[in-house]
Amino acid sequence: MSSRFLSSVLLVAAALMAMAHRAHAADRVVRFCVDPDNLPYSNQDGRGFEVRLARLVASEMGARAELVWFPLRRAFVRKTLGAGLCDVIPGVPAAFERVLATRPYYRSSYAFVSRRSGPGSFDDPRLHHMRIGVQLVGNDLAATPPGHALTRRGVVDNVRGYAVYGDGPAPQRMVDALAAGELDCALIWGPQAGYFAARAPVPLEVHVVHAPADLDSVPFEYSIAMGVKRGNTALRDALDAALDARRADIRELLAEYSIPTLPQPATRRPT
Amino acid sequence: MRRNVAVLAAACITFFTAPVAIAATDGEWPMAARDYAGTRFSPLTQVTVRNASQLRLAFSFDTGVRKGQEAAPIVVGDTMYVVTPYPNYVFALDLTRPGANVKWKFDPKANASSQGVACCDVVNRGLAFDGGRIFLDTLDTTTIALDAASGKELWRTKLGDITKGETVTMAPLVVKGKVLVGNSGGELGVRGWLTALDAATGKVAWRAYSTGPDRDVLIGSSFKPFYAQDRGDDLGVKTWPPEAWKIGGGNVWTFLSYDPELDLLYYGTGNPGPWNPEQRRGPNKWTSGIFARKPETGAAIWFYQWSPHDLHDYDGVNENVLADLPLGGTTRKVLLHADRNGYLYVVDRATGQVLSADPFVHVTTTLGVDLATGALRYNPQKEPKAGKVVHDICPASPGGKDWQPSAWSPRTHLLYIPHQNLCQDADTYETSYIAGTPYVGADLKIKTGPGGFRGQFDAWDPVGRTKAWSISEKFPVWSGALVTAGDVAFYGTMDGYFKAVDAKSGKPLWQFKTESGIVSQPVSYRGPDGKQYIAVLDGVGGWAGAVVSGDLDIADGGAANGFVNAMRDLPQYTQKGGKLYVFTLP
C-alpha cells in the first residue's frame, strides 16, 4: 500500500467524519430559558435581544436554539436550570453564584432617565424634591443600588417604587410615567433604561451613573454573562467560544436595542 | 429531647371559664380552629392521659399531593373534608364506611401559574363549613362554595390577581353569613386586604385594606384604638412615604377569630413590604398588627401594632386565641397572641389594651414592650442596613413562632404553643438578579438558636406569665397544636412523629411515626360509632420544609430566604408526603 493511497483514504475518512459530525450537530438543541414578558431581554412575540442572542450563539455552536418561556422571578434558577427545564439562562450577572457563568458579553450600569436636563449624579440637589421612580427587586431588605443611594441621602418621601409584579416590565411602566409627566426622573438598570427611553413617545435622556463614594459596598455596574447549571463546564466552555467568535455581532445587537455598555474591567472574572 | 416541668398553680386548673360560644356539637370540627375562639380544644374525653398510649391507626388516606400539607381536616356529621395544597383538591370521606371511602372529590382547576407566585410552598390552611356548604380558598385567589352533601360547586368568586403577586393560603372563617378571606403576597408588593363574601351568593360585601386612606381601611367614627399613636386621620397613608402604602403589604394569610358577645372579628396583618426598611420610614400602618372589626360592615373598632415599622419580616398574622382569664381579681375577656417578634401578648379584646407581653423565645431584636404606651422598643444594634453585617438577629425572620397555631385548654388554662428556636445572621452580601435587574442583597442565614435545638412545644401560663413546661425538638415544630378535655395535647414534628403528651405536665404519652414530616393541624372528632378519633395529615413542606417539598439544594443555604441553611439535614430524616392518618383507642 502506497503512502499516497493511505493518505487519500485518511482524507476521505476525515471528510466522512466531519459530515457525520455536522449532521449530528444540526440535531443538537440548546434550550434557553427566557422570560415571556421582559423586554428588552425577551418577549413571547419573538422580540428581545436575548432571543436573538440565543439563536446567534446556538447557530455558532452548530445547534438549534429552543426557547423555553419562563418568568425569571423568585427562585428562577431552581425552577429552570435546577429543574432541568433548560440548559442556559442567557443573561445573569457574571458574579451570580447560583449558576456557572460564561465570560461576560457586556457590562452596564444603572442610569438616570429623565426629560431634558435631568439629574446625572446623586449630588444633584434637585433629587430632594423631584418625583423619582426606582425599581423594587426581590425580597425584604433588598433594594436596587440607586435605591440605597437615595435613602443614604435622605431621599425617601419623593421616591416611588415599581414592583416586579404588575402589567408589563417595571421599567416600561416607569418610562410611561416619565412620558406622562407623573415622574421627574427614574433610576433604571442600563439595558432597560436605554431600550425603553429610546422608544418613548417623548425625548428622554439617559445618564449612566456610577456608585457614589459613600456606597462602595453596593456596586452599580454589573458584567452580564450566560449561566448554565453549576458543574456543566463543557457547555459553559462551548458558549464561551461561541460568544467570543460572535463578539462583533453581539456588539451590533446590543446597539440595535439601545443598550448602554461600559468597558469590562481588567480582571478576568469581574463582578 | 429535653423536658422542663414547672409546677402549675393549682388555681389555674380549678377555674373553668366557658369558652366563647362553640357553634358546633361537641364531636364535630367544622372549621380549622374548631371554634370561633380559635381554641383547637376538643371537649371529647375518651382519650386520656392513662390510655393515650394505646392509640392505634384506624385508617389512612393518601391525598396524592406531595407539597406541604398545612390544613386541618374538618368534620361535620358523618363526613370528613380534606383540602390539599395546590391543586387544592377537596375530598369528602364517608366516616360511616370502614376505611372511610371517598364520597366525592372536587378539583377547582386552580390556575397553575399561581404555584410560581406563592412565596413559601403552595400551602392551604383549611376549609370552613357553614349552613350545608363547604368554603374553599384556592391558591389563585378564588373562593368557592360547595354543596357539602354532593360536592357540587354553588358559586365561585375571584378575589385577586396572581399576575400582581396575589395568592390566598389562609383558612376562611364564616361569621353571620359572611365568608372572610384574606390575601398573601407581601413579599411581592401586594397590598393586604380582608374581604367578606355573602355565603349564599359569593357577592363581595366589603373589603378592608391594611394600608391606605381610612375609607379603604374601613376606619370611621367607631374606630377607638387604645393607644394614642393609632389615632388620627389616614394613618395608613401618612405613616409611609407617599404612595408606598399602595405596595405596602399587611397581608392576611392565616386565621381569624370571632367573639359573638362583643360581635368582633380579630385578625393580624402581615409585615410591611416589599423593600428595604430604609425606603419606607414611618410606622407603616396598618401592617404587623391586629384589627378588631364588626363582621357586618367590616368597620374597624380598634387596632394595635405588634411591630411598628417592622425591620425583620415579623408578620403580625399569628392566631388570636380568645379566653376569659382571672386577672387582677376580675375575669377579663382577653386574646392570647404569640407573635413572630417573640412576645406572648395578653390583650383586652374589647379595647385593644396590652395587659402583658413577655418573651417566649430568645429575643435580641427588641428590648421589651412598654405597657404604658404599647410601644415595642427596638434594639438599634440589630437593625438591618445595606452593607452592614449583623449577627445573632433573634428571633430569625420566621419569628419565635410562625403560622403554626397554638391551642388553648379551658381546663388547664394553658396555651400550647408549637414554635421554633432560630436566629439569623445578615452575613455577606451577594449579587442577585430578578427579572433582569441586578443588585446586591443581604445573604440571610437562618441558624439554630441558643440551646442547640430548633423547635419547641411549650405550655404557657398567661396568668402567671411563665412557661409551665417545654419540650425541645430537633426541628422547628411547624405543626399546629391540639388539646382535648382528656388533658392530652397533640403535635407533629418535621421528622415525622405525631406525639401525644400530658397537657398538665408535658410528659410524653405516645408517638406514631408517619411517612413524611408533619406541618398540618391535628383535630379530634367523634365518629359515627361513638368513638373519639384523632386525625392529622403528614406531608412536610411550607417555608420550613421547602427544602424537601421543593427539592431545594441543601448546598444553597440562602434558598427559601435563608431557611435552607437551618434545615440542611431535614432530607436525611424525612421525605415528601401527603397522607391522612386517623387514630383511635382499641
Mean pLDDT of chain A: 88
Low-confidence stretches of chain A: none
Strand content of chain B: 35-45%
**In terms of per-residue confidence, which ranges of chain B show pLDDT below 50 for 5 or more consecutive residues?**
1-24
Please state the overall shape of chain B, judged from the principal axes of the Cα atoms: globular
The count of DSSP E runs of length 2 or more, i.e. the number of strands of chain A, is 12
Percent of residues in β-strands of chain A: 15-25%
Report the end-to-end length of chain A measured between terminal Cα atoms.
Answer: 60 Å
- Count the helices of chain B. How many? 6
- Total DSSP E strands of chain B: 39
Trace the largest sheet of chain B across and list its strands.
1-32-31-28-27
Oligomer: heterodimer
Describe the 3D structure:
The complex is a heterodimer of chains A (271) and B (586). Chain A has 271 residues and is an alpha/beta fold. Helices cover 34% and strands 21% of the residues of chain A. The model of chain A has no long low-confidence stretch (mean pLDDT 88). Chain B has 586 residues and is mainly beta. In chain B, 5% of the residues lie in helices and 37% in strands. In chain B, the strands form ten sheets. A five-stranded antiparallel beta sheet of chain B has the order 1-32-31-28-27, with no helix packed on it. The longest helix of chain B has 8 residues, at 542-549. Chain B is globular and about 60 Å long. Chain B starts with a strand and ends with a strand. The model of chain B is unreliable at 1-24 (pLDDT under 50). At the A-B interface, helix 3, strand 5, helix 4 and strand 9 of A face strand 29 and strand 30 of B.
